[in-house]
Design goal:
Helix content: 40-55%
Structural class: alpha/beta
CATH architecture of the domain at 2-149: 3-Layer(aba) Sandwich
Distance between the termini: 54 Å
Strand order of the largest sheet: 4-3-2-1-5-6-7
Strand content: 5-15%
CATH topology of the domain at 2-149: Rossmann fold
Shape: globular
Number of strands: 11
Length: 395
């Protein structure tokens, strides 16, 4: 039996993880749950799965959670904030940690899980984007396992021969990351400046949180995945390419030197990669409907439009530069996306803000975590300044 700590349990990945876990009570026990602010949902999850520990980032919500658990007679301990997250990630009773907290806030707990030697199911791509080398070093030093949860990287993992994180497998020529193209794939470039947050979050194939949905709409999500794939699989920037695949059935492909190309296919449902990583190297039922290729009929592929989706080109440039550039890119993107979702920036200005920050912040080598945090802080301050400028909302 595996004992799970789920960081980000009230988000889409966390809920899908609990759905898979509930199908296999003989295989999995939930020992810790952590969330940001949704204490009511976390309370429901705690009462169903009875973890030893629950963590909430919001102190007021944590008090409500604690009172609710006490009233229900549950023995779950409640902790608050980053210290609580770190405690859940390194909990002695947990051997597996689902790292599903969106954004840079999930970095510290992911590192804590790696250092503690856990099996880390990585759904937080920012940890690799910001501090990839440091995370891989923590995995090696802690004796941890790192299994990707992103559908694309999990697909690559399934198509690769056994190996170690960060080491390129022999005979691999290149990797093709598939992108759905998001909700604006067929929308004229002239209309993008006026699209709304709700339109950007209406993904045609996947059900995701709002921040990730916007990243998918700008193709920044795919750019971050390029950086992630380079690090996870020891690939040079030129060995990772993006191809638009609107049906989201082929989740990624690996091409080998002999001309073979292996692909992983499945319906667009995150429970597939979650179930794969939870039970690896075994296979278990996930609740996902079987893929019917006859009913699907057509699978299309096309090149991405880097003029229309400038964020992809910016991320590809950051992948080539390395050092703290990916952390700078990620920080500027998080600020710009939050401003767009808050109605303070239009859609096309997300790329404008990121580009201006990349031009102004000098990247350095990553000697330690403080280098990453300093780059992140500088980029966020500058991005906030650009968002606050009158021109920022209509560039």
């Amino acid at each position: 039996m595996r004992h799970l700590a789920i960081l980000g349990s009230t988000g889409s990945i966390g809920r899908s993880t609990l759905d898979v876990v509930a199908r296999h009570p003989e295989r999995f026990e939930v020992v810790a749950l952590a969330a940001a602010t949704r204490w009511q949902l976390l309370l429901e999850q705690c009462l169903r799965f009875r973890p030893a520990l629950a963590v909430l980032a919001d102190p007021a919500g944590a008090l409500e959670l604690e009172q609710g658990l006490k009233a229900a007679g549950a023995a779950t301990e409640v902790l608050v904030g980053e210290r609580g997250l770190a405690a859940a990630a390194a909990l002695a009773a947990a051997d597996t940690v689902m790292a599903a907290i969106v954004g840079s806030i999930g970095l510290a707990s992911t590192l804590a899980a790696a250092r503690a030697g856990k099996r880390v199911l990585l759904a937080n791509k920012e940890a690799l984007v910001m501090a990839g080398r440091l995370l891989l070093e923590a995995v090696a030093e802690g004796g941890a396992e790192l299994l990707p949860i992103d559908s694309e990287h999990n697909a690559i993992f399934q198509c690769m021969p056994p190996g170690r994180p960060g080491v390129r497998a022999a005979g691999v020529r290149r990797v093709l990351l598939t992108a759905s193209g998001g909700p604006f794939l067929r929308v004229p470039i002239e209309r993008l400046a006026t699209v709304t947050p709700d339109e950007a979050c209406a993904h045609p194939r996947w059900a995701m949180g709002r921040k990730i949905s916007v990243d998918s709409a700008t193709l920044m999500n795919k750019g971050l995945e390029i950086i992630e794939a380079q690090l996870l699989f020891g690939l040079a920037p030129g060995a990772v390419e993006v191809v638009v695949h609107p049906e989201s059935i082929v989740h990624s492909l690996v091409e080998y030197a002999d001309g073979s190309t292996l692909a992983q296919l499945g319906n667009p449902d995150m429970r597939t990669p979650i179930a794969h990583a939870l039970a690896w190297p075994e296979r278990i039922e996930s609740g996902v409907e079987s893929l019917d290729l006859v009913r699907q009929g057509v699978l299309r592929f096309e090149a991405p439009d880097r003029v229309k989706f400038r964020c992809l080109a910016l991320a590809e440039g950051a992948a080539r530069c390395g050092g703290t550039t990916p952390a700078i890119l990620n920080a500027a993107n998080e600020v710009a996306v939050a401003a767009f979702l808050g109605g303070r920036l239009n859609f096309t200005s997300i790329a404008t803000v990121i580009e201006r920050v990349l031009e102004r912040v000098t990247a350095t080598d990553v000697g330690g975590l403080e280098d990453v945090f300093e780059a992140d802080r500088h980029a966020r301050r500058l991005a906030a300044d650009f968002v606050g400028e009158p021109a920022g909302a209509c560039a």
